[in-house]
Specification:
The protein is mainly α. It has 9 helices and no strands.
């Protein structure tokens, strides 16, 4: 029996819940492995070979290779674990977040300084404005 998940009804938002945690377990464990310098070196030397050591789906592996963080999240990745990929690439969290929104780092920073994204379009599906 599946649980009622009214929080899944927010357009453009992926909620990291227990189901997503299970789906992304190996993806997130791969990310955590990048905390060790020797693993970062192995990954950078041959990304595909290192990813193939992990029982991730092919789609998850390809999302990592493409550095498609939004896709990684949709496939169970947790942004706090995925940040290890950015750090391995020498990117700040702000640079990563900007890339995920289609903005430059500077545009993303300016948006956040001004208070973040507008609430418009960030309501429950079917909610009256």
């Amino acid at each position: 029996m599946s649980l009622d998940k009214p929080y899944m009804n927010v357009p453009g938002t992926t909620i990291f819940d227990a189901d997503m945690s299970r789906q992304g377990y190996h993806l997130n464990q791969f990310c955590m492995s990048l905390m060790k310098a020797e693993n970062r070196a192995r990954f950078k030397a041959n990304e595909r070979a290192y990813l193939d050591e992990w029982p991730m789906t092919e789609e998850q592996k390809q999302a990592v290779l493409d550095r498609d963080l939004n896709r990684c999240i949709a496939l169970g990745g947790n942004i706090y674990f995925l940040a290890k990929i950015g750090a391995t690439d020498g990117k700040s969290f702000q640079q990563m977040a900007g890339s995920m929104t289609g903005m430059t780092e500077e545009q993303y920073r300016e948006m956040m300084i001004k208070g973040g994204r507008s609430i418009e379009g960030n309501r429950y599906t079917g909610e009256k404005k």
